[in-house]
Amino acid sequence: MNWQAMVLSLKLAVCVAGILLAAGMPIAYWVTFSRWRWKFLVEAIVALPLVLPPTVLGYYVLVGLGPRSFPGKVWQSWFGHTLPFTFGGLLFASVLYSLPFAVQPFSASFETVDRRLIEASWTLGASRFATFFRVILPLSAAGAVTGAALSFAHTIGEFGVVLMVGGNIPGVTRTVSIDIYDQVQAANYDVANRTALVLLLFSFLVLAAIYGTNRRALSIWRRP
Fold first, then answer.
1. Do 164 and 61 meet the contact criterion of CB atoms below 8 Å apart?
2. Residue 13's pLDDT is what?
3. Which end of the chain has fewer CB within 10 Å, C or N?
4. What percentage of the chain has pLDDT greater than the value 90?
5. Which region holds residue 53: left if phi is over 0, alpha if psi is between -120 and 50, else beta?
6. Is 164 a residue whose pLDDT tops 70?
7. pLDDT over 50 (residue 116)
8. Domains in the chain, please, with CATH?
9. Strand, helix or coil at 177?
């Protein structure tokens, strides 16, 4: 098994889950509580990676971050290199690709919070910021865990976006999914099988943890 690729995938997944936990919460809060009549357009943009082929998303990220684009030129002038085929570019693309896997569970959990509790917090003088951390977030902790875990697990199994934006550079952008593809191409089926089994077991454990956490949180909430 290629442990270098495994470590790189775990590093990427942890970074993506952390970024989406911080950036996805405000987006999900706005989507849930906003009364803007056109907010469905924002929801459609957030959910777009669910229906777009990964290669299409990867292509536009590659073009958008390339040396001919304005963001690419600015990045190259600041850091001396472009983002594609680097870990930073891979991270940016992975955050976009896993965005709906974090925002949608966050938003769904926010919707389950009793609005009367939120309004009571405002009546007692708490700000929206304080209400979020003292009322909304504690009551939707299961959704936060689900969103972070799904974005983490989804990043581990990425292939199309990773290959388009990051390429296949050992130690830099070669993730475990690309390593499996390389092993199959080289007819190293035993190695590919062992790595695939590890990913299969890992995915099962993540899903089991998510469902177990949600069931436990639901039972505590319903307990008299």
1. yes
2. 92
3. C
4. 30
5. beta
6. yes
7. yes
8. 3-222 (1.10.3720.10)
9. helix
Residue located via tokens 């357009």:
41
Q: For the whole model, what pTM was predicted?
A: 0.86
> In 3D, which of 59, 56, 44, 62 has the Cα closest to residue 103?
44
- The candidate with the shortest Cα–Cα distance to 67, out of 39, 86, 42, is 86
Q: How far apart are CA 17 and CA 9, in angstroms?
A: 12
d(CA 214, CA 114): 18
CA angle 144, 146, 150 (to 5 degrees): 120
Query: In what helix (H) or strand (E) does residue 52 lie, and over which residues does it extend?
Result: none
91 neighbors 16 (Cβ within 8 angstroms): yes
pLDDT at 97 over 90: yes
| Range 74-93 average pLDDT | 87
Would you say residue 210 has pLDDT above 80?
A: no
> What is the rounded distance in angstroms from the CA atom of residue 30 to the CA atom of residue 7?
35
